[in-house]
Amino acid sequence: MSNLTQAVFDGMPKWIKSARIDKKGKLVVYSLNAATVTRILNNEILLPWNCGIWDSGYDTTDWQNSAIDREVE
Predict the structure, then answer these.
(1) For the whole model, what pTM was predicted?
(2) Residue 47's pLDDT is what?
(3) Where is mean pLDDT largest: 18-22, 54-58, 69-73?
(4) Which of 42, 8, 1, 2 is nearest to 28 (CA)?
């Protein structure tokens, strides 16, 4: 199982501002910041035009609070 780190953003398009793990261990990326993503998830609101499933095989421990922002260099 992989852990969610800044490395997930390597080579990703510039529009991706945050990422999180879903309950099945899939990496989901967003054009929104992590705080907004977490609020959306807590209210079970889906915004499919702002996200994409990128990869799988991630650790699902505390997946509800897994969202991280992309660090700007």
Answers:
(1) 0.81
(2) 57
(3) 18-22
(4) 8
